[in-house]
Amino acid sequence: MTTYQLLQVIWFALWGLLWAIYFGLDGFDLGSGMLAGLSRDKQERDTLIGTLAPIWDGNEVWVITAGGVTFAAFPKLYAVMFSTLYLPLILILLGLVLRAVAIEFYHHMAYNPGWQNFWAKILSVASLVVALLFGVAFGNIFAGLPFDASGWKGNVILSLLTPYGILTGLLFVSAFVMNGFSWFAHKVADDALRQKAMENAKKMWIVTLILGVLFYGLMPVMTPLMQNYKDLPVLFVVPLISVAMLLLARTSMGKGRPLAAMIYGSLTVFFAVITGVIGMFPNMLPSRLDPDLSLTAFNASSSQYTLTFMLIVVLIFLPFVLLYQGWNLKLFGQGKTGSEAGHY
Amino acid sequence: MVDPIVTLLSRIQFALTVGFHFLFVPMTIGMALFIAILETLYVRRGDEKYKTLAKFWGKLFTINFVLGVVTGVTMEFQFGTNWAGYSEFMGDIFGSPLAVEAMMAFFLESTFLGIWIFGWNKVSKKMHLFAAWMVAIGTHLSAVWIIVANGFMQHPVGYVLRNGRAEMENFWAVLFNPYAWHMYVHTIMACYSVAGFLVMGIVAYHLLRKQHVELMKTSARLAVVLILISTLGNAITGHFNGQNVALRQPEKLAAMEAQWETERGAGFPLIAIPNTAAEKNIELFKIPGLTSFLAYNDFNAEVKGLKDIPVDERPPVALTFWSFRIMILVGIVMLITAIYAYYLDRKGRLEQATGFLKWLLWCIPLPYISTTFGWVTAEVGRQPWTVYKLITTADSVSPISRADVVTSLTLFAVIYSLLVLLDYYLIARFAKAGPVAAERPEAVAAD
To answer: Considering only CB atoms, which chain B residues are within 8 Å of A310?
Structure first.
């Protein structure tokens, strides 16, 4: 393997890692967001949205970084993927816009219950759109996309409504909602609300388990992801960790430890995404019609100079980011209620 | 061949989304610095009024900040969605500053802003001040990277054409691109003007009503310095920026001045209407030799005319010409206002100058107008290129359908417009409610 190829492999890994971190971190935000609009109880809603306010932005920067890194390290992938998945991506972007605005304006408009109601609803819908569409997109990327030398087959949006795409979308939504319930149970002060949230988290755990079993069970049938695992069986440890994390999430719920349940639930998502990414290697935008046309880490990357340079940048800055973001999450992760909202 | 309608609609969408983005970002940059200075004064002098002010201006900052962030996220992905040709050709160079921006600046801003807003009772005074400065530094750093990226589009350096694309050969050349740094200083100064005039306008609102007088005068004392430095600074950096354009993009200069003939001692068309079809201007008043002097420090220097540039390489003349003039005219009005505001404040007469205070309210939109038109000058003046002399706008666009762009453009236009109106409404509401409301939002009267 040449140095250039090694760099391409490292960047493929970083690319997958960034997306996995994003879904791990923003997942419980999106889950809490989805729940906010469903809630009729003001205290419940204030807590749900209040706990998001100090952290959503930091978590969302991971998607900006994942996008920037895709651009810098795999420009061809960036160009082809985002221009072909045009409308789904525009909808995701508008979802992210409205999600953030809803969280912020919910607080700024605390003087008007009507507006607050409106923003809670917007927050739910926007969070759902982002979670579902990202899941559908990644499910399809795992399974392979319908393009050949003559271009994309069929309407882009309709062609994404494949069984595996929808399954992954639902899995994202259900895991995020489960984590949202755990996060809420951890943050809320009121005992009754906390109990209710824990019960709901347990129900969502069952849904997530069923979808997760389907996700892994259908993977060998519906996707080409197993080849890498057959070549290097030790990799099976990754999906196993993901399943173990899901089981630990349930144990933590049983023991009444919602924060641990939320963390294990987020790790479940993280390792599920990593599982898919490992299976894809070296493909990044796989064609299921003509595998030769797939964009890979080797044919879509930047020059050796840029990959080297950017790797140095990442090695310098990422530790700092993890350090102060970890501190921020710890600062606002502990303690009860959305009392932060009062200082807005 | 790419559909020209798709190119046009994509350009409109890009202009619209950047235009909206740039309504929020300058205030973020200027106000972040202003707040960090206020909080420094609070920590050093222990005077609570500075804390109250930091929270008050901080409230307006946060309402504005979120829209800057989210409109920025869509910007980052739009290079891929609508400008795939550009991204593929340029990504090796252009992607890096964007990725560095996220890692170096966005994490800093977003994380420490969370701590700044919600950490008043959670972290120490010094830590909180540190967070304020990290936010300010983060906003300034993010501007560095995006302008370095834009600087390459204006004046490509440090690259080599290889494998059918532009590849980075020397990152330091890209980073220390002189074009980028001319633009950076000029842009940052403009950001200070946006924040400074916003503060002065709100100060004027309250002084006219004789409320929060002490707090408002304290704000004004700092803000007059900010607007004086920034408007003066912009006149100076603008001049050097212009000379830089003359040196590196003579086509843009020719369009900015509607200079049709190549000539020595070119005059500055102070009052003129360019006629692109006839390739001449209706000129009412021209200052002899001034264009030559401003561009090259020499009244007799030769200025390249549009007629010596192939028609398909000329920027749109009228739009560039008018945008440039609007920016300058508004800039001059701001400069005069800033000098007078500084003078009145230092003489202690700002509070009594009722007429001038009313004028300051009208000045709030001025820096927004000049930044927008300055940006139009820089970007439209670079046409027909996305990257100067390397790739054209027509070759940059994605192979997408008209229906795709019409759908996205409509969604962006409608949603962004509503958000801007709401943002304006909220900022105005909290600005008028004054420093008390910033601490207790529920104290703001219900509708």
So the answer is: 96, 99-100
Return d(Cα A102, Cα A122) in angstroms, integer. 6
Q: Give the residue from chain A lying closest to B120, CA to CA.
A: A343
Q: Does the beta carbon of A323 lie under 8 angstroms from any beta carbon of chain B?
A: no
Angle separating helix axes A56-73 and A3-38, nearest 10 degrees: 150
Contact flag B107-A321 (C-beta cutoff 8 Å): yes
Tokens of A330: 């710890």
Residue B348 region by backbone torsions, left for phi larger than 0, else alpha for psi between -120 and 50, else beta: left
Residue B180 contacts residue B147 (beta carbons within 8 Å): yes
Which element (helix H / strand E) includes B369?
helix B366-380
Write b or e for each residue in B331-359: b if 16 or more Cβ atoms lie within 10 A of its Cβ, otherwise e: bebbbebbebbbebbeeeebbebeebbeb
pLDDT tens digits in sequence order for chain B, 447 residues long? 578 888 999 999 999 999 999 999 999 999 999 999 999 999 999 888 999 999 999 989 998 998 988 898 888 899 988 898 898 899 889 888 888 888 888 888 888 888 888 888 888 889 999 999 999 999 999 999 999 999 999 999 988 898 888 898 899 999 999 989 989 999 999 999 999 999 999 999 999 998 888 889 999 999 999 999 999 999 998 888 888 888 888 888 888 888 888 888 888 887 888 888 888 888 778 888 888 888 888 888 888 888 888 888 888 888 998 899 899 999 999 999 999 999 999 998 988 999 999 999 999 999 999 999 999 998 998 988 888 888 888 888 888 888 889 999 999 999 999 999 999 999 998 888 888 765 555 555 444
Q: Do A100 and B441 touch (CB under 8 A)?
A: no
Residue B260 has what DSSP assignment?
-
Judge: B404–A65 Cβ closer than 8 Å, yes or no.
Answer: no
Report d(CA B303, CA B260) in Å as an integer: 10
The answer, as to whether pTM is greater than 0.95, is no
Q: Backbone phi, then psi, for B145, in 5-degree steps?
A: -70, -40
- What does B53-76 look like in DSSP terms, one character per residue? HHHHHHHHHHHHHHHHHHHHHHHH
Contact B360, B336 (CB under 8 A): no
Cβ–Cβ contact A97 with B under 8 A: yes
